[in-house]
Specification:
The chain contains four helices and no strands. The chain has about 80 residues and is mainly alpha-helical. Helix 3 packs antiparallel against helix 4. The longest helix has 17 residues.
Length: about 80
Amino acid sequence: MNLGQQKFKSFIMERIREGEQGNAEALLAESFRKLDERSFDEEYLRSFMPRMQSLLKPEHAEEVEAIMKEFGAKFSR
């Protein structure tokens, strides 16, 4: 895991609902693996976003969604 991924993971984990940390860790590991394999694409992001949002504390959903959309813009060019 590179420094950017570590920072993103820390950012996300602080916003995960109680009891969902394991699911969030697994989802982040999957996404980081896909990035490393260069198979993280717009299609994967569309499936990743709702799964991640379901794990977030409600008060952080909009904040994280905005960041994921910004990241996703890189794939829609």
